């Protein structure tokens, strides 16, 4: 019964999304208040019914109702309860349901916080979101119904993929999806603005906080995914340039460009058409990611079940949504050239560089991701584009970006006198160069061009980002301090600096060794000694494991004990490596059990990873910066202004 | 003007590529064995248990047989071993093992402890047979038809669902062919 209720709720949501997609847009066109008034109730109703469907699927999982095909394929009786819940979004059908739930959630928030916008404009925004939701719901119901029954029901399920039975991965997809789906709001604002033809600076102002919120969730989502890959996949890498990782990273890069270009459009009325295009591109790349992951067009460790029918449906949807948006763009954008100018030495110039470099990086990643497909279609041969390409293709535009970022954030709008800028940044530059050379040489005993370039860039951005917050903190009473927006920017850029230092040091000084150890043997890497004390069997709720006990010593002192595991999940019979990690702020020690070599000897992979925590910490600080900026009071309507709007609309205050 | 249409054109080109990429004829995952449907390469190896005797591909000539590459250092082999034991009890199809890039002593101990599902195991210490057969990594299981052709190859640990969905229909078809 419960699955049928869920299925039915989903069909109701589909009908409501159609109303929400059609009527408000039509109403806004004809200026028909009754049709416009459908927008908010339809959106709320849609959210409620999708939530009902989501709860129904969750209940089916909690009750282990294996007569539901999706549950039978992705759960199992002894699966721990938290993973029964996260299994809801553990595969294609359920993750799509999560996607539409989040889309409806964003829409409800837009309804709630758009009361100060002109009614016709917000009706268009909600209408566009309703149309997107209609497409995804139709896709879910036609090709990927999570409530499909299975008869006869099996006694036990096939279990959730063991790789997904992990707390990091339970929250990684929701965060990522909140970000992906959040870009649909910026997209809807851009479309609404283009339909209305009213493309002055206002839409940029309205869009900014939404974009920042989406971006910060995407940042957290990607960082969590990287962290999970690091400790769960068992080989200690943190980024693999896998097509699906790239699919999440490209919207992030374009979203970052969008945040910066929106700032220019809002403050100065420049880059209008460019900002529109970025708003379209950020969401289009999110959709493209969905297509790449779910159509099976590229090989990836992340790929969902391959189904050409699904691929065709998404492709048709992409054509309508992205194609439609770009046609609208080709029609509306040409009239948007601005008269306002700016000097070469101004913040506008630096933000332009930011945008150009981020777009270049995205284009290079897109090219590398799709190259195997192009080549195969051209001459039938199979190639693979690996990390060496991506690392270089990414570093070339990004390193200059990091250097310029530090200067740009202290440059004034319109025109900046070079002398005062030089005076302000001279000392930080000297400190950065000295520290950037000394840190590698003193702590790690060596260096290299890329390493110095990276550490200097990181230190440089961190110091420069701290200038304004410190000045504001130490200012004399009564003077204006830093704005929330400015503080958010400083914090986010500080995070970028940490990230860059982490990446540079990890790539230069990681030590990896595969050793064979018998019980009692010791192996040494990077000044740490690892002793295999023993091996024993361990039993988990739905797996058996062989657990190693490894003591770590440094200069004879005991550092810690690690218990890496080699697990076999009972239902899927798949082996999993559970690494043992001794984490510290300045280094991780990473041990993974390999294969038995006979005679109680095991191959063991040992790794020393300096400053690897800076990578994720940097990303989380970036997200924190986004959070601070998005909470800027400027974007909230004052109580008085809201009252004014209400009076104008004839509502009680 | 042109610069505002450029994104649309770029997107249209991309769509064309994706549409071609979705062609159902295109199969990405398959890494076909070059021998699939062709005659299997033979082998002639010393037996694992009794090095003075030999086990060769002639031993199963005219029959449907499984050739399973395994080794004691391979975790996947340990995983599939229990299933191979069940298989050896319940089917008529003989399983020939090839102990690949392994040492004799641990291999014998392995069969003693875990059971021996094989009609016979060849000892392929220098991987000559492995190379001839195009083995990527253990375990790998080849299904050989009556005329000595490779009917199917499975990469990775074998289990019941793969056995039933991939091997059983092929074996049934092969057995039924000449009757």
Describe this structure in words.
The complex is a heterodimer of chains A (653) and B (179). In chain A, the strands form 2 sheets. In chain A, strands 2, 3, 4, 5, 6 and 7 form a 6-stranded antiparallel β-sheet that branches. Chain A has a 4-stranded antiparallel β-sheet with strand order 1-10-9-8. In chain A, helix 8 (167-196) crosses helix 11 (272-295), helix 14 packs parallel to helix 16 (449-473) and helix 16 runs antiparallel to helix 17 (484-509). Chain A has 653 residues and is of the alpha+beta class. Chain A contains 19 helices and 10 strands. Chain A is globular. The two termini of chain A are 45 Å apart. Among the domains of chain A are: 1-160, no CATH class; 511-610. In chain A, strand 8 and strand 9 form a beta hairpin. Chain B has 179 residues and is α/β, with parallel strands linked by helices. Chain B has one domain (34-177): 3-Layer(aba) Sandwich (Glutaredoxin), CATH 3.40.30. In chain B, 39% of the residues lie in helices and 19% in strands. Chain B is built from 5 helices and 7 strands; from the N terminus they run αβββαβαβαββα. Chain B has a 5-stranded mixed β-sheet. In chain B, a hairpin with a 7-residue loop joins strand 1 (44-46) and strand 2 (54-56). The mean pLDDT of chain B is 83. Chains A and B meet through helix 11, helix 12, helix 13 and strand 9 of A and helix 1 and helix 2 of B.
Total helices of chain B: the number is 5
| Helix share, percent of chain B | 25-40%
Q: Helix/strand/pairing class of chain B, anyone?
A: alpha/beta
* Helicity of chain A, as a percent range: 55-70%
Q: Helix count of chain A, per DSSP?
A: 19
Low-confidence segments of chain A: 648-653
Overall geometry of chain A: globular
Overall 3D shape of chain B: elongated
Summing up helix and strand content along with how strands pair, one would put the structural category of chain A as alpha+beta
- In terms of DSSP E residues, the strand content of chain B is 15-25%
Q: Please report the distance between the alpha carbons of the first and last residues of chain B.
A: 74 Å
SSE pattern of chain A: HHHHHHHHHHHHHHHHHEEEEEEEEEEHH
């Amino acid at each position: 019964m419960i699955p049928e209720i869920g299925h039915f709720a989903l069909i109701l949501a589909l009908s409501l999304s159609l109303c929400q997609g059609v009527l408000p847009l039509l109403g806004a066109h004809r200026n028909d208040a009754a049709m416009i008034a459908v927008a908010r109730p339809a959106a709320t109703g849609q959210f409620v019914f999708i939530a009902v469907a989501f709860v129904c699927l969750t209940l089916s999982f909690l009750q282990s109702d294996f007569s539901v095909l999706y549950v039978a394929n992705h759960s199992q009786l002894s699966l721990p309860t938290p993973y029964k819940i996260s299994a809801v979004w553990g595969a294609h059908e359920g993750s799509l349901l999560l996607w539409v739930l989040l889309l409806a959630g964003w829409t409800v928030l837009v309804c709630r916080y758009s009361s100060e916008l002109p009614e016709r404009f917000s009706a268009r925004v909600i209408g566009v979101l309703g149309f997107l939701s209609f497409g995804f719901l139709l896709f879910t119901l036609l090709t990927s119904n999570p409530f499909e029954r299975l008869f006869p029901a099996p006694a036990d399920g096939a279990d959730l993929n063991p790789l997904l039975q992990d707390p990091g991965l339970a929250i990684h997809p929701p965060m990522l999806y909140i970000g992906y789906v959040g870009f649909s709001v910026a997209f809807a604002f851009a479309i609404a603005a283009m339909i209305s033809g009213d493309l002055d600076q206002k839409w940029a102002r309205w869009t900014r906080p939404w974009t920042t919120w989406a971006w910060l969730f995407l940042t957290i989502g990607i960082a969590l995914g990287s962290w999970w890959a690091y400790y769960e996949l068992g080989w200690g890498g943190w980024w693999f340039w896998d097509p699906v990782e790239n699919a999440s990273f490209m919207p992030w890069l374009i979203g970052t460009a969008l945040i910066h270009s929106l700032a220019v459009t809002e403050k100065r009325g420049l880059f209008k058409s460019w900002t529109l295009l970025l708003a379209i591109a950020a969401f289009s790349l999110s959709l493209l990611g969905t297509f790449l992951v779910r159509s099976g067009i590229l090989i990836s460790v992340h790929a969902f079940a391959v189904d050409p029918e699904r691929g065709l449906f998404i492709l048709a949807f992409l054509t309508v949504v992205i194609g439609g948006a770009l046609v609208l763009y080709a029609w509306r954008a040409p009239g948007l050239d601005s008269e306002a100018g700016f000097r070469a030495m101004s913040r506008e110039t630096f933000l332009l560089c930011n945008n150009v470099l981020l777009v270049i990086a995205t284009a290079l990643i897109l090219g590398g991701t799709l190259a195997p497909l192009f080549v195969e279609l051209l001459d039938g041969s199979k190639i693979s584009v690996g990390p060496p390409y991506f690392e270089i293709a990414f570093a070339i535009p990004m390193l200059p970006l990091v250097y310029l970022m530090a200067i740009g954030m202290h440059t004034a709008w319109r025109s900046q006198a070079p002398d005062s800028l030089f005076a302000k940044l001279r000392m930080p530059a000297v400190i950065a160069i000295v520290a950037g050379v000394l840190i590698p040489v003193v702590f790690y005993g060596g260096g290299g061009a890329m390493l110095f370039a990276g550490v200097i860039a990181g230190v440089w951005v961190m110091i420069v980002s701290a200038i304004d917050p410190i000045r504001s903190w130490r200012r004399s009473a009564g003077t204006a301090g830093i704005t929330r927006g400015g503080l958010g920017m400083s914090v986010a850029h500080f995070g970028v600096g940490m990230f860059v230092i982490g990446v540079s040091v990890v790539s230069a000084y990681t030590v990896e060794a595969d050793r064979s150890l018998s019980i009692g043997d010791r192996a040494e890497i990077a000044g740490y000694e690892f002793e295999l004390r023993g091996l024993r069997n361990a039993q988990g709720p739905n797996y058996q494991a062989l657990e190693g006990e490894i003591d770590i010593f440094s200069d004879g002192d005991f550092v810690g004990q690690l218990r890496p595991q080699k697990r076999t999940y009972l239902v899927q019979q798949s082996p999993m490596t559970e690494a043992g990690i001794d984490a510290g702020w300045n280094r991780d020690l990473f041990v993974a059990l390999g294969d038995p070599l006979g005679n109680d000897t095991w191959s063991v992979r040992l790794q020393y990873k300096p400053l690897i925590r800076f990578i994720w910490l940097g990303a989380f600080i970036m997200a924190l910066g986004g959070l601070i900026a998005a909470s800027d009071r400027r974007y909230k309507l004052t109580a008085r202004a809201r009252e004014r709007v209400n009076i104008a609309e004839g509502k009680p205050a | 003007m042109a610069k505002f249409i450029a994104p649309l054109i770029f997107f249209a080109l991309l769509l064309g590529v994706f549409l071609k990429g979705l062609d159902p004829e295109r199969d990405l995952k398959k890494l076909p064995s070059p021998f699939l449907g062709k005659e299997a390469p033979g082998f002639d190896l010393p037996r694992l248990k009794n090095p003075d005797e030999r086990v060769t591909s002639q031993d199963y000539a005219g029959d449907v047989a499984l050739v399973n590459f395994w080794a004691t250092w391979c975790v996947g082999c340990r995983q599939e071993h229990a299933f191979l034991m069940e298989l050896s009890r319940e089917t008529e199809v003989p399983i020939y093992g090839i102990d690949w890039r392994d040492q004799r002593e641990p291999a014998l101990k392995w069969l003693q402890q875990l059971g021996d599902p094989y009609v016979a195991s060849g000892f392929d210490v220098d991987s000559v047979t492995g190379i001839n057969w195009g083995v990527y990594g253990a375990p790998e299981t080849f299904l050989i038809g009556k005329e000595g052709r490779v009917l199917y190859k499975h990469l990775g640990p074998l289990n019941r669902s793969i056995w039933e969905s991939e091997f059983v229909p092929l074996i049934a078809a092969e057995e039924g062919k000449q009757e």
